[in-house]
Specification:
disordered C terminus, 9 helices, two-stranded antiparallel ribbon, alpha/beta, UDP-N-acetylmuramoyl-L-alanine:D-glutamate ligase, globular, 298 residues
């Protein structure tokens, strides 16, 4: 069987959590990718009725053997040539990392230009919220395979094993970890009352800042990972993808808070994902490997 017409290399396999109510994990990523015109193969790593931040609830994790078998089915699928990227997020257990790694290998063997984005969802400023074994599996098995990684600042510190007091330290840690492209969310902002997203590659360090939004709903990390990947796949440069993804997340976040919503309202704000109107401050930072010519504005 051949790939469907017009789909070769455009589909994204997304492996992350699935909530019944809300817009986090797969619910956020799949909506964003499809809104930007990319087909999605979605596979849940865990099923929850809602985000755990709303309160304790039932948690269903596929048995490791069944999860592995399903991943192997995908890896052997006759339509694998449709896939141009894999995005992994929250994992339900350390065994899932091995299966995801096999799937990434199969996709890249079929399409050498395929991208792998690893969003190492493991914790925030309050500490790890997954078992340490799961976090270690992401660090040891998945981050080294990634073309793109999108940790928040806490996750980058945990992966690097060191405190990162400023963006220069964060950029050096990102380069040491190895993924060619790193997008660090909740990076150090340069303006008071703001929040930043830091892009680090072997050639540039760029910060996108916007004002902090109080009482923000969950799901912004899942959303920006998907938007950044989609923009790269549709031809934007990394710096431009950072800008448009940050603008979109800021816009939908501000709109949700203004309405008093406890979740992002992506179905209402789909236009903001496709054509955001919000403005963010873009700054080129001095690259750890650069000379004094760094520091110019983007």
């Amino acid at each position: 069987m051949t790939d469907a017409p017009g789909t070769a290399g455009r589909a994204v396999i997304v492996l992350s959590s699935h909530v019944v109510r809300g817009t986090v994990g797969n619910r956020a990523a799949v909506f964003a990718l499809e809104t930007l015109g990319l087909p999605v193969w979605a596979m849940p790593t865990v099923i929850l009725p809602w985000h755990p931040g709303h309160g304790r609830a039932t948690r269903i994790v596929p048995p490791p053997g069944e999860f592995s078998a399903l991943v192997d089915d995908l890896a052997a699928a006759p339509w694998l040539g449709e896939v141009g990227a894999v995005l992994s997020g929250y994992l339900g257990g350390p065994e899932q990392a091995e299966a995801v790694a096999r799937l990434v290998g199969a996709v890249k063997a079929r399409n050498e230009g395929a991208l792998y984005l690893c969003d190492p969802v493991m914790g925030d400023a309050g500490g790890l919220y997954v078992p340490e074994a799961t976090a270690a599996a992401m660090r040891d098995l998945l981050v080294p395979l990634a073309d793109i990684a999108t940790p928040n600042r806490f996750e980058l510190e945990w992966l690097a094993g060191a405190a990162l007091p400023d963006n220069s330290a964060a950029a050096r840690a990102a380069l040491r970890l190895g993924p060619p492209t790193m997008l660090v969310t909740s990076a150090h902002a340069l303006m008071a009352g703001s929040i930043g997203n830091l892009l680090v590659t072997d050639r540039e360090a760029v910060l996108a800042e916007h004002r902090a939004v109080p009482d923000a709903p969950h799901g912004t990390g899942d959303l920006i990972s998907a938007l950044f990947l989609a923009r790269l796949m549709t031809g934007q440069s990394a710096a431009k993808a950072l800008q448009t993804a940050t603008e979109a997340v800021f816009e939908v976040l501000a709109r949700a808070v203004k309405r008093g919503a406890d979740e992002l309202m992506l179905e209402t704000d789909a236009q903001s994902l496709a054509r955001p109107m919000a403005m963010v401050q873009m700054r080129r930072l001095v690259h750890p490997d650069a000379g004094p010519e760094g520091g110019r504005r983007a």
